[in-house]
Every structure is written in C-alpha cells, then in structure tokens.
Design brief:
about 220 residues; alpha/beta; Rossmann fold; Arc Repressor Mutant, subunit A; 11 helices; about 50% helix; globular; transcription regulation; DNA binding; NreC/VraR/RcsB-like_REC; transcription
Length: about 220
C-alpha cells in the first residue's frame, strides 16, 4: 500500500486529488495539511511514502517544507513531489535542489497523476527529458557546489555512464539496455553514484550531473 500525504492550501484541490487517489486499491491518503508547517508535522506523524506538496502556501512554502523533510533522517523514506500551477519555473528547480523527487503540474491527466504517484513511491525521479532540458537551460548556471568535485572523482567510468543516462531521463531498465548490463547492475551503478555524490534521490542526481558539467544540456 502506497501511503500519501496531501499538502495544499486549497481545500478543493486537496479534495479533488484525494477523491482520485481513493479510487485506487494500492494507494491510501493518510493525512492532509493546509500549509508546509502542518505538512511537516503530518509527515513526521504518519511517515508517508509520498508527500504531494504545493509550492506556494502560507506559513511555510513547499520549498522550505521539502528542505526540512530532506534534512530529517527520520523522514528519509518520504518522497516529495512538488505540485505547481506554473510548469517549469525557478521555484521548481529550487524544490529539486531542496530534495524533491520531482514535480507535477496540477492540470495533469488523472491517469498520469496516478502513475506519477506510483513512480515516486518506487523512488524514481519524475523528470521527463524535455522537462530536464528546460530546467537545465534556464537555471543551471551556478558554480559547482562544495563536495561535488571530489564525488565526481570517485565515480568509476561505468558509474559516470549510468549517471549520464539517468540525467537524460532513462529508467534503470533503460540504462541497463543502453549499457548492455543487467537491471540489477544498472541499479547498483546508480545507487553507488548517489552515495558518492551525496544525492538524496535520482532527481538530485540529475541536478548534480548537469551542475557539475558531467552532462551538458545538449546531450539530453
């Protein structure tokens, strides 16, 4: 059972998402919250698998709530998915930096929304290649973050290759096919790269891959 937390300051939005999620046998909405502070408290109380969090809310916005969830070892299993009305913007990239596993635009089709919740629960990043290109083209312009250089130096050639493919939006199975290895080996390469680069999840691995220069925007 996938346990979901809904965090949005608009009750109508929350009720709409809840009604959709409640139709699924493998998904349970365990709590709702109307702002980031309350959402953080509910996350600590219920330990959901997926937290769907709006970006712009009173008291505490979604970015700060995401940052605090990502920083709390007790919430390491919580996968944050950001909800936005605006598509790709600077807030989305800030949320990815803060530790979000991906983002969804609120006018998403119901079947795509349900699929996204399941993808997030598995720990996969919700970043399509086209979205990745837009994010990187617009917002990755800062120098390397402290520690990324050292982490890159520790990657093996195969780990670098796996990271580059993940940064293009490929799943572990697709990475395995491209590298002509087993899915388990592909997953191992990706997981080891995440550890070496101190990436919380695949979304942050994508961000680090582009910020570090390991992958250039034109490659995706």
């Amino acid at each position: 059972m996938i346990r979901v937390l809904l965090v949005d300051d608009q009750p109508l939005i929350r009720s709409g998402f809840r009604a959709l999620l409640d139709t699924e046998d493998d998904i349970e909405v365990v709590a709702e919250a109307g702002d980031g502070s309350e959402g953080l408290a509910r996350a600590r109380e219920h330990l959901p698998d997926v937290a769907l969090i709006d970006i712009q809310m009173p008291v505490m916005d979604g970015i700060e709530a995401t940052r605090r969830i990502a920083a709390d070892p007790a919430l390491a299993s919580v996968h944050v998915v950001i909800l936005t009305n605006y598509g790709v913007d600077e807030y989305v990239f800030d949320a990815l930096r803060a530790g979000a596993a991906g983002f969804l635009v609120k006018d998403i089709q119901p079947e795509d929304f349900l699929h996204a919740v399941r993808v997030a629960a598995r720990g996969d990043a919700l970043l399509a290649p086209s979205i990745t290109r837009k994010l990187i083209d617009r917002y990755v312009s800062q120098p390397l973050a402290t520690g990324i250089d050292a982490g890159l130096g520790e990657l093996t050639n195969r780990e670098r290759e796996a990271v580059a493919l993940v940064a293009q939006g490929l799943s572990n199975d697709q990475v395995a096919e491209r590298m002509v290895i087993s899915p388990l080996t592909a997953k191992t390469h990706v997981n080891r790269a995440m550890v070496k680069l101190h990436a919380r999840d695949r979304a942050q691995l994508v961000v680090l891959a582009y910020e570090s220069g390991l992958v250039a925007p034109r490659d995706s």
